[in-house]
Write a structure and sequence with these properties.
With 203 residues, this protein is mainly α. Helix content is 62%, strand content 0%.
C-alpha cells in the first residue's frame, strides 16, 4: 500500500486511448499523493475536484486483473480527509466520496475485497450514528457491499452475508430500502450457495 502507483500495469497491452487515459491518471495521482503533492491544508477547490475525478478514474480500473486500484482510491480519500482535518474548509467528504471507494472494492477480484468493502460500510454507519449525516450510507453503499460478496465471497458465506446486509437495509432506522438489484443479488447468492435451506430462504 506504500506505493503511489501500482507496478502491475502493463502499458504494452494498452491501446493509444487507454494509454493516454492511464498516463493522465498516473500523472495527477502523483501530484496529489506523490512527491509533488501540496502541503496539507493548501489544496484549492480545483485540486480537490481533480482528486475526486482521479478517484473515479482509478475506480473504473478496479476490475482489471491484479489491479491495485482500490488501494489507490483509498489513499486519495485519505488525502482528502487529512486535508479536511488540516482545516481546509473547501473539502466536503460525503456519501458519494465513500461510495467511490466502495464501488472500487466491489469490482476488485483481490482476496479480502468483500471484507474490506464491508469494513468501510461499517465505518460509514458508525460516523453517521455519531452525528455525521453527510456520510449516511445509501442504497448504493449497501449494494456495493452486496455485490462484493457475490463476486468474491465463498458461496455459503456470501449468501449468508448478502442476506444479513439486505435485512439491515430493511430496518427502519437505516432509512434505506433494498432495491430490485439488492434482491436480485440475494437470490443469485442463495441460488449459487451450498446452503441446504437456500430455497426456503429465497422465498
Amino acid at each position: 500500500r506504500n506505493e503511489v502507483i501500482p507496478k502491475t500495469i502493463d502499458f504494452s497491452s494498452l491501446d493509444d486511448k487507454e494509454r493516454r487515459e492511464l498516463d493522465w491518471i498516473i500523472r495527477n495521482t502523483s501530484k496529489i499523493i506523490g512527491p509533488e503533492s501540496q502541503p496539507l491544508g493548501t489544496m484549492s477547490g480545483q485540486s480537490i475536484q481533480l482528486t475526486f475525478n482521479v478517484m473515479k478514474a482509478w475506480g473504473r480500473r478496479a476490475s482489471k486483473k491484479e489491479s491495485k486500484a482500490p488501494h489507490v482510491v483509498e489513499r486519495l480519500l485519505q488525502r482528502l480527509l487529512k486535508e479536511k482535518d488540516a482545516g481546509n474548509k473547501l473539502v466536503r467528504i460525503d456519501t458519494m466520496a465513500y461510495n467511490i471507494v466502495l464501488d472500487a472494492w466491489s469490482y476488485s477480484s483481490e482476496e479480502g475485497s468483500a471484507e474490506r468493502c464491508e469494513e468501510i460500510l461499517l465505518q460509514m454507519e458508525r460516523m453517521y450514528q455519531e452525528g455525521d449525516e453527510s456520510v449516511k450510507p445509501d442504497e448504493g453503499s449497501y449494494n456495493a457491499v452486496v455485490k462484493a460478496y457475490v463476486k468474491n465471497g465463498s458461496r455459503s458465506i456470501s449468501a449468508t452475508k448478502v442476506e444479513s446486509i439486505v435485512i439491515r437495509m430493511e430496518q427502519p432506522e437505516k432509512q434505506v430500502s433494498p432495491t430490485r438489484r439488492s434482491y436480485n443479488l440475494l437470490l443469485y447468492a442463495l441460488a449459487n450457495s451450498s446452503l441446504e435451506d437456500a430455497a426456503s430462504r429465497a422465498e
